[in-house]
Amino acid sequence: MGPKGLLITIDGPAGAGKSTLGRRLAQELGYLFLDTGAMYRAVGLWAKEAQIDPNDKETIEQLCERLDLRLKQGAQGVEVFLNGRNVTPFLRTPEIDRWSSVVAQIPGVRSWLLRLQRSYGLEGGVVAEGRDMGSVVFPEADVKFFLTASPEERAKRRYNDLIAQGANVTYQQVLEELIKRDKQDQNRKIAPLVVPKGAIIIDTSSLDLREVLDLMLQKIHFYAKQRGISPLPASRDTLNF
Ligand code: DC
């Protein structure tokens, strides 16, 4: 446990609920939400806007380290700043889904983001969400979760989100795209999607948000109790679970 609290990781495939649950868990614990998918998305957005061929690894590797990428805890949750500009509203589109998935396969992008992610995480008081958090970035995390759900259920959630944003997509397209991304994420050479050693696996297919959240909080409080510590920052010590 770092000086600011526990280090908690959430891994899992696209659409398993990592972002929503990570954000809520961080809120309830008073922790920072380290949204690493948003960091890869920001790199994808930058490459797209700079009109760099996403397969041109060398150029992307050379230039990405000069980017100023920061996460800030805003009133509405975590916000992503790229070279001083708030890019949060542009990150969750089908186009950036594809760009981020390609840049996430570039070794130099991963090693740069890994250093950045560790600099945020090691003090503790962090819920880190991504596909390689408990396996590669924070193998020493206090509590590791692996969230999963059936591809159909995950596609349904993603489809509903996209429709709510006004996107013009069909459920079938979303399902096919998701299965393709699963394969890409599982089969890539570096940091493939795996269940981290010691992770608590939760299948969210038939659970609602509150049920998963309560399950996660129970596990966190059980871990803390075993060690005789409070997982909450000092100001929230009175909150009982
Ligand atoms: O979780 P997400 O959909 O926002 O992630 C966007 C892309 O970034 C996705 O293709 C997987 C990749 N990613 C990754 O490789 N490692 C992470 N820790 C987080 C995301």
> Order of strands across the widest beta sheet?
2-6-1-7-8
Give the names of the bound compounds. 2'-deoxycytidine-5'-monophosphate
Largest sheet: 5 strands, parallel
CATH class: Alpha Beta
Distance between the termini: 19 Å
Helix content: 40-55%
Please, what is the average pLDDT?
90
Number of domains: 1
Radius of gyration: 17 Å
The total of beta strands comes to 8
What series of H and E elements makes up the topology? EHEHHEEEHHEHEHHEH
CATH topology name, in short, is Rossmann fold
Describe it for me?
The radius of gyration is 17 Å and the shape is globular. Mean pLDDT is 90; it is low at 235-241. The strands form two sheets. It has a five-stranded parallel beta sheet, with helices on both faces. A three-stranded antiparallel beta sheet has the order 3-4-5, with helices on one face. The protein has one domain (7-240): Rossmann fold (3-Layer(aba) Sandwich), CATH 3.40.50.300. It is 47% helix and 15% strand. It has helices spanning 18-29, 36-49, 57-64, 94-103, 107-121, 133-137, 151-164, 171-187, 209-226; strands at residues 7-11, 32-35, 69-74, 77-82, 85-86, 126-129, 143-148, 200-203. It is α/β, with parallel strands linked by helices. A hairpin with a 2-residue loop joins strand 3 (69-74) and strand 4.
